[in-house]
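@channel sequence for tomorrow's demo:
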Amino acid sequence: MTDERLETLAVGTAASLFFLAFHSTYYNFDGVACAVAVDLGNPRYLAHGNHLLYGLAGFAFDRAWRLFGYRGPALLVLQTLDSLLGGATVAAVWRLLARARARPLARIAACAGLALSQAFWLWSLEAQVYMLSALFLVLAATQALEPSPRPGRLGFWHAMACLGHVGAVMFWPASAYALWRSRAGRRGALACAGAWTLTLGAAYAAAGAFFVKPSGFADARVWLLGSAALKVDHSFTWYGGYSWSGLKDWAVMSSRIFSDSGLLGLGGLALAALGAWRSRRGHEVRTVLLWLAGYAVLFTSWQPSIMVYRVVDLPALWILTALGLSAAGPALLGAAAVFVAALGVFNWRAAIAPACDPARNAVYEDSLWIGGVTPDDAWIVSSGLYQVYAPYFAHRRPLNLRYFDRQPQALSARLDALAKAGEPVFVPSSVMAADPWSAQPLRAYGLTEAGRRGQTVLYRVMKGKPSGSRTKKLKTAAADKKGPNGIGSDLVSRPRAMSQTP
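structure tokens (generated this afternoon):
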């Protein structure tokens, strides 16, 4: 094994072990939703149209664990997968910088800075799709930065990044520049485009034929649109648009991905800008800048204030920093080392430690409690995080308010149907506060307090007095519902609760 491979393996192992040392209980919506899909094993939900590969890879990773006796929740498996992906991405950045002839100290500073940046550190602990795309993007960039990139490999890695998340299509300006400056010519461009098209086409064709199996054009359209067709009528919706406020949000988030400390965030951007300026005559910096520019076109319009989307920007920014530090003197290298250390200390205290404290996740704690004070056949009126927390942590069926689209009459009709079937319905006070339109029909229908935990009141929704035999006695805490990792100990014991429709 060559020295480069040994170094890359060592860096990847160290970074992965670093991320695995933390257990996040932030439990973001998309991660829990993916864990629900993995636990159910329904391939239609695993092969998401916007990020085709992550759910299927997560399912395979989860089932591999179970071959060795693992019986816990898929959510922990997916969090582990993302920690390994985060470590692999740090290792890929190390390899890219080695091939770009960056100095060892500059590589160390950049890789440590990437691992300790707020967005990358936090989302390497959570189940989320973007870490997979980030890894493949760095591999594509490694090929793009070569003096003579191989068009087929460039197209393949770029396609894999798009299978990680479709937003990676915005890497095309960087790919096109790499082919142009290497004089790959028409044959090279066709080879790159062909590899990209064949990889994507084959993956989507296979997913459609064997997993999703759309019933027709309309069904296939909804699948491919993914997050852009979340409305009840599945109409295409672009969540954002170009505006000055969107540009401002993007600029603020460009700082926050380093740290919520304004000083440290601006410091990270300043280091990247300095690296770009010092290396401005090299093709490497131009390629990386086009990588950033392509994504900027997307993220200044599509939900520019969402941090996790910007995980794909961070490797590029730290690559620029390393390229600049490679020609720096001891003073600047020392300042960069101090900056990286400060970044780690601040982000641990301000972001990572709170994310690893389950008491900071009130909806999670309330969901465990709700599972302990409601009958097994209960429905929980849900919105926001409760849409996935109710089935996954409380093991109760969610009565999802978004399917009623602010139609009180439709909600009342559904409550009548459940009452006729003898199925109990409960609603947390926080759900009514978050969706005020629902409070009136719920109160008109009839609410009786069923329990209280801190600021959260749980109401039984029914006409007249609820039957005492239908409601469990209130437990003062949900600690007995937790397993050794702070997660409900029987998360996968009731898949029925995860599969119910509203």
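heads up for whoever presents: The first strand starts at residue 379 and ends at 382.
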